[in-house]
Specification:
Layout (H helix, E strand, L loop, with lengths): L17 H12 L5 E3 L13 H5 L5 E3 L6 E2 L2 E2 L3 E3 L15 H18 L7 E7 L1 H8 L3 H24 L5 E7 L1 H6 L3 E2 L2 E2 L8 H15 L5 E6 L16 H13 L6 E5 L7 H4 L10 E7 L4 H13 L6 E4 L11 H11 L4
Parallel strand pairs: 1-6, 6-7, 7-10, 10-11, 11-12, 12-13
Antiparallel strand pairs: 2-5, 3-4, 8-9
Length: 347
């Protein structure tokens, strides 16, 4: 059986503040981590669900529905472009990702100066794709209309992040879930997930993600986390095998002008059979491959079963969970981190 090298924290971690996330990850996983995220704490706790509160403040964008749809303290109501508003003139506010990253980086740097985080470890910033936000919170013709404005706003966030955090301290990950749902024609939020542009949906998804990957400066690490969703710790569809993930990842890696530093692929908890992993034989080379085969429900034993199955096809990989653990049950976080440490060696 292959002994995995290294671990990746996908993004969200179920702690209340960035310092606890950074400090605990460094303590438990130490030299297994090349990069550490801040845990997507605060209003980012449920991935993109805070974006309607942000975008709803823009002139020309309205909330759909008279009553808030509360997700803890977030109003998750979707959005529409107001009647008479010119989509090309919309001025979107700061999305919140850059401000959060810059604030957490100062904590990261202080902990590194104190010796709590090792030299050479990078600060990881996870960002959603345009497809995720536009496809989740807008409908019909509004999707195509808002896409250019949201793309520009997201790239401004990236530019602010890369301008404020030194390149050799920074790693940027694109979180890619809605794209896989569209390819699989899955049901998300009670409706079939669909593209909104003319032409082949797959090609459009690839080109949009390639543009985001290429927007990350060459001297900044860039990673991609592919996902089948994590609403209530459940996928929006269970994959028959890793074939869709491999096909999409290969197209993105081949289409990007810059190298991908790492790629993360999810592994469902019940898949320790050869059939699921067989398509990984066709995966094009990437700098680092992480398989999301760590699950809180079956810990080390389950992870080792899935590692054994993957080892038949993939000669080298690190470990991760299949999605972020920011919504895992309270009290389970350190156990999940300890499972990573138990099944993976240091770099």
């Amino acid at each position: 059986m292959t002994q995995p090298h290294g671990a990746l924290l996908v993004g969200s971690v179920n702690y209340d503040d960035a310092e606890k996330t950074l400090r605990t990850a460094a303590e438990v996983l130490g030299p297994r981590l090349k990069r550490i995220p801040d845990g997507e704490v605060g209003r980012r706790f449920h991935w993109i669900m805070f974006q309607p509160d942000v975008l709803g403040e823009a002139e020309g964008i309205e909330r759909i529905g008279a009553e808030p749809v509360w997700l803890r303290d977030l109003d998750a109501r979707p959005l529409r472009i107001a009647d008479g508003a010119d989509p090309s003139s919309l001025q979107l506010p700061p999305l919140g990702y850059a401000d959060a990253a810059i604030e957490s980086y100062e904590i990261f740097r202080r902990l590194r100066d104190e010796g709590a985080i090792a030299e050479g470890v990078r600060f990881q910033v996870s960002l959603p794709t345009v497809v995720a936000v536009v496809g989740s919170f807008f409908f019909g013709d509004d999707r195509a209309a808002i896409e250019p404005a949201y793309t520009a706003a997201l790239l401004r966030e990236l530019e602010q992040i890369t301008g404020a955090i030194p390149a050799d301290d920074l790693a940027v990950q694109w979180d890619v879930a809605s794209e896989i749902g569209i390819i699989e024609r899955a049901s998300g939020y009670g409706r079939t997930m669909e593209a909104w542009w003319d032409g082949d949906p797959f090609e459009g998804l690839v080109s949009r993600l390639v543009d985001l990957v290429d927007a990350v400066p060459e001297n900044v690490e860039a990673g991609v986390h592919l996902c089948y969703g994590d609403a209530g710790e459940r996928h929006f569809v269970e994959p028959s095998d890793a074939g869709t993930l491999v096909r999409f990842a290969n197209a993105v890696v081949s289409g990007a002008r810059r190298d991908l530093t790492w790629l993360h692929l999810p592994v469902p908890i019940d898949r320790d059979d050869d059939a699921f992993y067989a398509p990984l034989a066709e995966l094009v080379p990437v700098g680092e491959l992480y398989l999301g085969l760590v699950h809180r429900e079956d810990g080390v034993e389950g992870a080792e079963r899935r590692i054994a199955a993957a080892s038949k096809v993939v000669p080298a990989f690190g470990v991760a969970t299949e999605c972020g653990i920011g919504r895992a049950p309270a009290g389970t976080t350190e156990g999940i981190l300890e499972t990573h440490a138990a099944v993976a060696t240091a770099w």
